[in-house]
Design goal:
- The chain has one domain: Alpha-Beta Plaits, CATH 3.30.70.
- Helix content is 27%, strand content 29%.
- It is built from three helices and six strands, in the order βαββαβαββ.
- The radius of gyration is 12 Å and the shape is globular.
Length: 95
């Protein structure tokens, strides 16, 4: 598909966690807020970086199987706190 922009609304996130069950690219931090784990970045450092952010935004090029996981994770979120965009066109792909 190309590059995706993943946006996690950390204010809206209630830390229920079904998103994290769908992919290893999302994990809940100590405040029970979803964090997108960028490959190659230290998880604990990333948790510190996003700790006080209202939204985490990541632009990433994923293999198709990981793309599918991220879409499933977004669909699993009961409060629709995960948004997916085409990074090149800006088109919102989910929700």
């Amino acid at each position: 598909m190309g590059k995706l922009k993943i946006v996690i609304d950390r204010i809206k996130c209630e830390g229920i966690g079904p998103c994290a069950e769908e992919t290893d690219l999302i994990e809940l931090d100590k405040r029970h807020k979803a964090v997108f784990l960028e490959p190659g970045k230290d998880k604990e450092q990333l948790f510190k970086e996003v700790e006080n952010l209202k939204k985490q935004e990541v632009v990433i090029d994923l293999p198709i199987d990981k793309e599918d996981e991220v879409f499933r994770a977004a669909e699993a979120c009961p409060v629709d706190a995960i948004y997916i965009y085409d990074a090149e066109t800006g088109e919102q792909l989910y929700p």
